[in-house]
């Protein structure tokens, strides 16, 4: 469920195993690892709420040190890559049954793996999670009659969908140096 080419799928899975104890020791979890040609992006989440920026600031050098000690990272990147350590935005990546269960009732956008279904895109609400499957409803956030059961192994990528509420005011900060004229 991580982005990147086929050469690094094993690397990404190994990195989850290596980084998860470090994350847990700091009250976080590894939400996503994205490995591209020249970048390793590690996203941490706090199961109890938002990730504190100061926690990420303390965690970043520990992640860097751990990655420097892993021969497979050095081999994959010839010793040079950009490390990005971040927290999730409003739309959360979902990988595990626990992630899906945490967001029951939330709208989700799912991309299925190639060959699983003719319609690879699924947009609906998480109705429930059972073992290695997730139940997606299409009519409403709860109690949909029209549902699809999806095997987690068939999911290429899943993210919650943030929607502005009706009447919610969107504001933008004034540009630097601008003055309000009345």
Number of strands: 8
Element-by-element helix/strand order? HEEHHEHEEEEE
Task: Tell me the major beta sheet.
Answer: 5 strands, antiparallel
Low-confidence spans: 1-7, 174-182
Structural class: alpha+beta
**Order of strands in the sheet with most strands:** 7-6-5-4-8
Estimated helix fraction: 25-40%
Using the CA coordinates, give the radius of gyration: 19 Å
- Strand content is 25-35%
**Rough shape?**
globular
Q: Give the number of helices.
A: 4
Distance between the termini: 51 Å
> What value does the average pLDDT take?
84
Helix-strand layout with pairing:
Elements: H1 9-25, E1 29-35, E2 39-45, H2 53-68, H3 71-77, E3 82-86, H4 97-102, E4 107-112, E5 121-130, E6 133-137, E7 147-151, E8 155-160
Parallel strand pairs: 2-3
Antiparallel strand pairs: 1-2, 4-5, 4-8, 5-6, 6-7
Helix pairs in contact: 1-2
Written account of the structure:
The protein is of the alpha+beta class and 182 residues long. Helices cover 25% and strands 28% of the residues. The chain has four helices and eight strands. The strands form two sheets. It has a five-stranded antiparallel beta sheet with strand order 7-6-5-4-8. Strands 1-2-3 form a three-stranded mixed beta sheet. Strand 5 and strand 6 form a beta hairpin. The radius of gyration is 19 Å and the shape is globular.
């Amino acid at each position: 469920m991580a982005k990147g080419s086929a050469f690094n799928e094993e690397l990404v899975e190994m990195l989850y195993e290596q980084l998860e104890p470090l994350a847990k020791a700091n009250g976080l979890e590894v939400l996503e690892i994205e490995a591209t040609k020249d970048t390793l992006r590690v996203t941490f989440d706090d199961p109890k709420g938002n990730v504190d920026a100061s926690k990420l600031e303390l965690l970043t050098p520990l992640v860097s040190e751990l990655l420097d000690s892993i021969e497979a990272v050095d081999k994959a990147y010839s010793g040079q890559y950009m490390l990005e350590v971040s927290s999730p935005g409003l739309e959360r990546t979902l990988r595990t049954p626990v992630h899906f269960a945490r967001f029951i009732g939330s709208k989700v956008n799912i991309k299925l793996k190639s060959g699983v279904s003719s319609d690879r895109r699924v947009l609906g609400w998480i109705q429930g999670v059972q073992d290695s499957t997730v139940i997606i409803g299409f009519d409403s956030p709860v109690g949909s009659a029209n549902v699809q059961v999806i095997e987690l192994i068939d999911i290429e990528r899943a993210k919650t969908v943030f929607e502005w509420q009706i009447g919610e005011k969107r504001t933008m900060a004034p540009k630097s140096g601008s003055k309000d004229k009345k």
